[in-house]
Predict the structure.
Amino acid sequence: MKKRNVFKLTAFLLLLCFLLSAVSCTIPFLKPQENEPATDSETLDKEEQNPAPVEDDDEEDEEPPKKEEKKEEDVYCELQKYTIIYPNNGDLALYYTAMCLSDYFLNELAIEIPYKTDAQAESAYEILIGRTNRQASLAVASRYLQADEFLIAKSENQVVFRGNNYMCAGAAGYFVKNCIEKIDDVYAVHMNTLKTLNTASALTQKWEETENVILLIGDGMGRNQVLKTVSTGKIRVWEGDRLPGQAYCTTRSRSVELGSASYTDSAAAATALATGYKTINGYVGLNENKKSVKNVRELAEEVGAKTAILTTDKITGATPSGFLVHVDDRNNTTEIEKQQKAITDAGVISLCKGSLGDSLFDYTREDLWKVSKCGSRFFTMIEESEPDHGGHNNDMDAVVLGVKRLNECVAYAAAFTLMHPDTALIVTADHETGGIELGTNGKYHFTVSTHTNTNVPVYAIGSGIDTLLAEDLIDNLDIARFMASVYGAEAWGQE
Ligand SMILES: [Zn+2]
């Protein structure tokens, strides 16, 4: 290009720049940031000469710090100095993310890092989860993030996580993997691995190959059991609704297909989920020809995964039994106990516990860290049985209690899954109980005291769930096949 042309172009750009400045000062919506009036005239000029998409701006902003980082000394802050801070507003996703991160430090690094609400006085060493009242959290509170994105940044020695729904736990997973180092037996945050509030850009959650499955079952929990619970105000949000994967699932057993029963029972439903075979109501771990068929817990155990089964029901109940034993009568408690004892005596199961009641959550927490310890592969099934009992007895309080308890487990397991990106979390029911419907008076009511064929909801997050939930309506055998594929079974269950 000739010098004269360059001069002309420069003059033209300056004119354009002047005109744009005039326009942007008079028309507010043309300003780049509504809440941040651009005070630095240099930055303003730059943006207007180059009115390109946001990404280019980021690059310009990022470059100077990168150069500085090369000269910068490595800065480490001792992990032990930190407190995890979450907002004091009752958002379960953020509360359980804080708890789960603290549990990671305790279980994997043997360090006690407390988690407290932002009502606590501010300190220099804080890990801030979501929109806390701290200045550093507020500075990034309006940054737009996609559903699968999170933000992680530093402000002096504070570390800031931001994300929608469960994505702060994605930031927690990123943090423990990339930002913590052990130096002379002391764990420290390597501050140079974190960008500043201004330079940090959104990161996308990265899932790894699926190695583990967490299966949460609400026995008898249809969609209306969930909606009823939300309507009582006893839970603010059903945490399943905040997970990215959602579908419905058909539950019929072989007995239903043969016309010998109207709906599945929990034994056949658990057998379908665990073994991939539709069977006769009452059978546990057997196909319709009474042949013993392998369950997913046994398969996981074979490939070296740690396994655990938890329930609020009796441990000899039909749902846990589907993942443990092989018996042609779900009521043959003597045989079920005998077979279970053989499993626990052999020491091949990490946790196997029933009748947990309100301690289901505490055991869920213990379970997840126990089976995943030191990067071990795992499979766990955790059941809340109260929605089924409530359905049979037409006791709405029992239904609500069960859904509420399961909701806490969903919240914690979701945070845990984001911190273990090789894990799939599936939340579903074995069948619906009580035929709960919404009446014209706007109230939920039972229509029967039995199970029904109503499709049950499925909620999921984690590695591989897009494959599982490719369709909006799946069958319980699809869940079985997906889980078995995680542990290497190419063909699983019936054709
Ligand atoms: Zn039942």
About this structure: The chain has two domains: 76-204, 212-486.
